[in-house]
Amino acid sequence: MKAIGYKENLPIEDIKSLQDITLDKPKATGRDILVEIKAISVNPVDYKIRANRPAPDGNWSVIGWDAAGIVKAVGDDVSLFKVGDEVWYAGDLTRQGSNAEYQVVDERIVGIKPSSLSFAEAAALPLTSLTAYEMLFDRLQVAKDDASKSILVIGAAGGVGSILVQLAKKLTKLNIIGTASREETTAWLKDLGADTVINHRNKLSEEFEKHNLPAPEYVVSLNATEHHVDEIVKLIKPQGKFGFIDDPKVMNVMPFKGKAVSTHIELMFTRSMFQTEDMIEQHNILNEVSELIDNGKIRTTLGENFGIINAKNLRKAHAFLETGKAKGKIVLEGF
Asked: What CA–CA distance (Å, rounded) separates 278 from 39?
């Protein structure tokens, strides 16, 4: 089968950072399903792994953690899917990724693809939907029916933010405050349902004062957490909840002690990495999001389609994503 992989951790400008390769088609056993990949999307985890995680000695490493495709075979213990089902998923950090024609994946982290979306539109959503949903409801445990509470989403115009804002709008009564820094991304967030959009290039506390905003009970930081943490400490309501998903080199939580703020880290891969008892919750979440999409309550966050799935286009996608200027998600489809 065709695939894109690497053997060395190299800058994306190097042609060897991602290469077109040929590998044996994997086989589905146990609770695995074999999926023919129709479309993928690219996430920050892709370039972080590509740049930092060594490939197995003498072997190719295939990355990619978003896919939509068709089930071609099932393992003996599979009960959730059958051959021919259209599916979507984000995959497992400990296994080969979705940058290939075929992939095996545990059925418990796979959902039924929204029937109203194309494969490319669907591929934009699994990882970010799972991350956003788990952050809101598993980590922060937001109050769904309390219209008096607010959530601040820092870096809200990216992949995770674009779906988190929609989920918060449709599944809660929270007042949603998003941050962006360009006219284009500000308009995007308002269109997705943000009640107020402020500029994260300015001090967040000054932006809150300017817009006469209440102290948020919940704060989610999706990027540049190190840069914003002091302002978050100032802004967040006493006994509030703070969550982040990025990788600050140092994260001192002690400034939050005075306000008794709880701190939460979200990693969508935890359930699959550790085979947790509630691993099937990702199957359930993806099916719930699929239903929300097919009912017209949530839409795809596809930003740009970079063409067919090959090394050249993936290098281009990684390079653009590394600039931090992407609006929504970058997808590729077909081989």
From this structure: 27
Residue range 2-125+271-333, CATH number = 3.90.180.10
As a whole number of angstroms, the longest Cα–Cα distance in the chain is 60
Separation CA 45–CA 51 (nearest Å)? 10
Question: Mind listing the pLDDT tens digit for each residue in 136-160?
Answer: 999 999 999 999 999 999 999 888 9
262-277 residue pLDDT tens: 999 999 999 999 999 9
Task: Kindly give the parts of the chain with pLDDT less than 50.
Answer: none
- pTM for this prediction: 0.95
Q: Which two tokens stand for residue 184?
A: 């284009």
Distances (CA, A) of 259 to 69, 148, 225, 233, 234: 47, 19, 18, 8, 10
Burial zone of 274 (CB within 10 Å; 0-12 exposed, 13-18 middle, 19+ buried): exposed
At the topology level, CATH places domain 128-265 in Rossmann fold (3.40.50)
Domain extents for the chain? 2-125+271-333, 128-265
- Compute the residue count for the chain: 335
